[in-house]
Design goal:
heterodimer, A: 188 residues, L-fuculose-1-phosphate Aldolase, eight-stranded mixed sheet, 41% helix, globular, B: 584 residues, alpha+beta, Aldehyde Ferredoxin Oxidoreductase,  A, domain 1, six-stranded mixed sheet, 24 helices, 16 strands
Chain lengths: 188, 584
């Protein structure tokens, strides 16, 4: 299991989708979930950096799991997701800070095909508010952006959640540069 | 002069001469050592000459509060006790919650120093400015609960049980039944002085220099305590038994006297299981929002701490929860350190090839508490017992203090922390549990030496200062030295930066080291039992070469010589250069 985490953790950092000890990942298996540890670096994950916690029942392992554990729990309880990736993708964060809208509509064909619109939600790190907002938005979306914070993407497997994470960042990057060019050339 | 945070005076009690004096303190000394552990170390270092018998009238006991004790700063209802240890011969400080610390402060004293020895059993009573030495002959022979019940009408009770009276070398001193000055045999020192108890009450709160600023600082600390899952979700929900499943999962749980590092029965002793089995009631120390201490509602018996569950439980290979609750209660009532007691019994079991059962474990605790039969030999601690039996290698100790509940093979910062601890095998000096186990404030790789020597030295300094304020170490899972220095400044009116605060800790650490060097300890004592260098468990043995290299790097980080001796320049920078002659 941890090797899968290791593979996508490295890819997330390698492609600039998150860095330092930011971001976290989890996989649901029945009533349990495997989640990265609080403070772990996603490009250095080994078997000691992934912990198993119960989906419904808090245990002592909660305190060494990612501080976003509560968000992961709420998403699994309310959606069909089996894998979650939370990243601090820069263009997604930038766009969420530049707009007052509640969602971002991708401009590129691939992203609009995969994601449709991308909701922008609010809530403090590891808060119940964030957990509820994320779970609610992900009932009918594949990914969301937490305003000024990062992305949460879901999938049936980690690879799918990774693809959705990449897709959000790609959509935001394209939109950022198109909007910038439009602003520079007065085409708004 | 006006004192803020501190009271500016201590009580000096000579039991041999039955003389009581109230002595003013100097602000310069308090600025250098703060209080608690720091003040105690300063006083013990200066009061004692090298080579004295810790169980003679020549030894002293210092009970010291800190500038934050009894103030509204969260988790500061604590105090320290410092002496020369009868178990290790090193300097010894121990730190305790309960109510005694704040009450001593409310009575108007920063510290009590007890010297000499009474010819007959006595107890000390303090109520504001009325201080007396009272007859305790009727209390002698009673255990902690009965003694506390007899004296509790006078205030917060600090007392020994029969283990302290009979000079069990790891006897503890208990505050209000369940909070312990646990390690190193302070209870035996008290017993050697025929001092059964100290009971204190007071009616004045310590003054705070900037109350409004302190409210702001406290809000900062409280916010961090609430935000941290370790304090708000872990310790508050399960108490320290929250560690049992985590430590087992990390394969560092002492099992069978450290011959193994996991137990298939760990869950039976875990916080989760205790919660399922019993309805518990929180019994927090004074002024503590974390509230890690708890008791079983139906029986009123204490829920054992993690260290007890590990050392009297898995390390002795007895994992019956009811039995561990009972031996924990017995240890508290006799007044004995559960860590050393468990480690010594585990050593005894290995040495005699015994498989212990609950009944035998309970019987052994009774025998040690009363020094009956084999209990008399075990009451000397694991090192003396193993040496006497010709198997010194089976005592899992450092400098004579038995190791607690973390197998050093799987937590290398902890390994270095154990080896370099001034009071011997102790986890709370650098408290690497935070970073290597919980990942707080930052997760570091527990099987790597990289950066550990520097980090261990820094954390030892920080915790020495924290133990002098006196704040609970558990707060450090959430707050940093910066928030504590800010609170300290608001309380005392003296500007402490984080660097000032850490330097206080470094000064204390170096003075403790000087004490031990003066007593004849050397770099050869900064090591671990051979088992950890020679035997694998689920985790590989520690490479001795790597350990020695880390130790040298640690000495360098401290500006000590390669023989582990503080340099003159270092002592001068710490304003204790006058003590250099002891090691030159």
């Amino acid at each position: 299991m941890w090797r899968e985490f290791n593979k996508f953790g490295k890819k997330l950092v390698q492609y600039g989708l998150t860095h330092s000890h930011f971001g976290n990942m989890s996989v649901r298996v029945g009533d349990k979930m495997f989640i990265t540890r609080s403070g772990s670096m996603l490009d250095e994950l080994d078997e000691n950096q992934v912990v198993e916690v119960h989906l419904h029942k808090p245990t002592s392992f909660d305190i060494i799991a990612s501080s976003e554990l509560i968000v992961h729990r709420e998403i699994y309880k309310n959606t069909s997701a089996l894998a979650i990736i939370h990243a601090h993708s820069p263009f997604a964060i930038i766009l969420s800070l530049l707009t007052d809208e509640k969602e971002i509509i991708p401009m590129d064909s691939e992203s609009i095909y995969f994601l449709h619109e991308i909701p922008i939600i609010t809530g403090k790190v590891g808060s119940t508010e964030l957990a509820h907002n994320a779970a609610d938005a992900l009932k009918d979306h594949k990914a969301v952006i937490i305003k000024g914070h990062g992305t949460i993407a879901i999938g049936k497997i980690l690879e799918e959640a990774y693809v959705h994470t990449c897709c959000v960042e790609h959509a935001c990057k394209v939109k950022y540069f198109v909007d910038l060019q439009n602003a520079l050339t007065g085409r708004l | 002069m006006d004192w803020y945070g501190w009271c500016g005076k201590l009580v000096d009690i000579d039991l041999s001469r039955r003389k009581i004096q109230v002595i003013p303190l100097e602000l310069d000394i308090m600025r250098l050592y703060l209080g608690g552990r720091g003040l105690g170390v300063y006083l013990v270092y200066n009061e004692l000459t090298s080579g004295i018998d810790p169980l003679s009238a020549d030894n002293v006991l210092v009970f010291a509060t800190g500038p934050l004790t009894g103030t509204p700063v969260p988790t500061t209802g604590r105090f320290a006790c410092v002496s020369k240890s009868p178990l290790t011969g090193t300097i010894l400080d121990s730190n305790c919650g309960g109510r005694f610390g704040p009450y001593l402060k409310f009575a108007g004293y920063d510290a009590i120093i007890v010297r000499g020895a009474s010819r007959t059993p006595v107890y000390i009573r303090i109520a504001d400015n009325v201080i007396s030495i009272e007859d305790a002959r009727s209390l002698w022979g009673k255990n902690v609960r009965d003694t506390t019940a007899a004296l509790r009408g006078y205030g917060s009770v600090l007392c020994i049980g029969t283990a302290g009276e009979r000079l069990v070398r790891f006897a503890s001193i208990m505050n209000d039944n369940t909070s312990a000055l646990g390690r190193g045999g302070l209870g035996a020192v008290m017993g050697s002085k025929n001092l059964k108890a100290i009971v204190v009450n007071g009616s004045n709160r310590p003054r705070v220099y900037e109350p409004n600023l302190l409210r702001y600082r406290n809000a900062d600390i409280t916010r961090l305590l609430v935000a941290s899952p370790v304090s708000s979700k872990g310790l508050r929900v399960y108490g320290t038994p929250v560690l049992m499943n985590l430590i087992n999962y990390m394969k560092v749980l002492p099992t069978a006297n450290f011959r193994r590092s996991t137990s298939p029965h760990a869950y039976e002793l875990s916080g989760e299981h205790i919660h399922e089995r019993f309805e518990v009631r929180l019994t927090p120390c004074y002024g503590c929002p974390i509230a890690c201490k708890r008791e079983i509602r139906s029986s009123g018996m204490e829920v054992p701490e993690y260290e007890t569950l590990a050392m009297l439980g898995t390390s002795c290979e007895v994992t019956n929860l009811n039995a561990i609750i009972e031996v924990n209660h017995l240890c508290n009532d006799y007044g004995m350190d559960t860590i050393s007691c468990g480690a010594t019994i585990a050593c005894y079991a290995e040495l005699n090839n015994l498989q212990l059962d609950p009944k035998t474990l309970i019987s052994l605790v009774h025998k040690i508490g009363t020094r009956r039969d084999v209990g008399d030999e075990l009451a000397e601690g694991a090192r003396r017992y193993a040496n006497k039996m010709g198997h010194p290698e089976l005592s899992m100790d450092v400098k004579g203090l038995e190791l607690p509940g973390y197998d050093p093979r799987g937590v290398l910062g902890m390994a270095l922390g154990y080896a370099t601890s001034n009071r011997g095998g102790c986890h709370t000096r650098a408290y690497m549990v935070g970073m290597e186990i919980f990942g707080k404030p930052k997760l570091i790789h527990r099987l790597s030496w990289v950066g550990k020597p520097n980090l261990v030295a820094l954390l030892q300094n920080i915790f020495a200062a924290v133990d002098s304020t006196v704040m609970c170490k558990f707060a450090l899972f959430s707050v940093s030295e910066e928030e504590i220095a800010n609170a300290l400044s608001a309380v005392t009116g003296i500007d402490f930066t984080s660097e000032d605060f850490i330097q206080v800790g470094e000064r204390i650490w170096n003075l403790e080291r000087l004490f031990n060097l003066r007593e004849g300890f050397t770099k050869l004592d900064d090591t671990l039992p051979e088992r950890f260098f020679q035997e694998d468990t689920d985790i590989r043995r520690i490479s001795k070469a790597e350990f020695m290299s880390a130790l040298l790097e640690y000495y360098r980080a401290r500006d000590w010589t390669k023989d582990g001796i503080p340099t003159y320049d270092k002592l001068q920078a710490l304003s204790i250069a006058g003590e250099y002659s002891h090691v030159a």
